[in-house]
Automatic annotation (TrEMBL):
Record InterPro entries: Cbl-bd_cap, Cobalamin-bd, Cobalamin-bd_sf, Met_Synthase/Corrinoid, Meth_synthase_dom
Name of protein: Cobalamin-binding protein
UniProt cross-references to CDD domains, sorted A to Z: corrinoid_protein_B12-BD
MF annotations from Gene Ontology: cobalamin binding; metal ion binding; methionine synthase activity
A GO CC annotation given for this chain: cytosol
Domain named B12-binding N-terminal: residues: 7-101
Highest rank taxon of the organism: Bacteria
Keyword Ribonucleoprotein in record: no
Keyword Metal-binding applies: yes
Organism lineage: Bacteria, Pseudomonadati, Pseudomonadota, Alphaproteobacteria, Hyphomicrobiales
Amino acid sequence: MSDDEIILSELSDDELVQQMHDDLYDGLKEEIEEATRILLDRGWAPYDVLTQALVEGMRIVGVDFRDGILFVPEVLLSANAMKAGMTILRPLLAATGAPKQGKMVIGTVKGDIHDIGKNLVGMMMEGAGFDVIDLGINNPVENYLEAIEREKPDILGMSALLTTTMPYMKVVIDTMKEKGIRDEYIVLVGGAPLNEEFGKAVGADAYCRDAAVAVETAKEYISRKHNSLAARA
C-alpha cells in the first residue's frame, strides 16, 4: 500500500502512533500535525501524545543519527516535523502542568555564527521534554549570565564550530565560577572541533558529540541531580 492511501484517521491508536514514528523519521510535517490533532480529538492527554508519539519517534531518529544511518539534513527535517507537533501541544502541556524533564538555555558563543548543530540539539532536547531557551548565535558572556538569572535553567549548553571561538566557552565558565554559581548548573558543550579533553579543560560537565548524545547526557545529569537532592532532603 502506498503512503498516499494511508488515511490517518482510520488507523487505530497503536497504528497511528507507529505511523507517527515513521512520519517523523521521514520528516513529514503535515502528517505529524494531522496525527497529533487526531490523537487529541480521541481524548489522548497532551503529555501522552508528546512522549509516546513524538519523543519516542525522535528517540528512534536520534539512535540512527548517532549510528550514522541518518544525517544532519534528514534529522533537521524530522526535528521540524516534531516542532510542528510541539506547536500544537505546547499550550496544552502548559495548561495541564505536564511534567518537564528540565530547562535548558543554549546558545552559540561570541564570534561564532554557526547554528545548525545548536538548533538540532535544541529541537531534540525539546523533543525529549525539556524547556529550551535558545539564545541564538554570537553570545557574549553577559547574554548567558542574564539568561541564567532570568530563566533559572538546569542546564547551560554552549556551541562553537570555529577553533578560534572554542576558548570563549572557558570565559563563560570562569565567569560563572567567579560569581560562585558554576556548581548550580549542568554545563554541556558541543561543536565539531571540540572533544572530551577540551570539555574537561574548560571545566564543562560534559562534551556532547551530537544531538542524540546531548539528550542522553542531559537526562543522565538531571536524574543524578534529582537523586542527590533527594538524598540531601
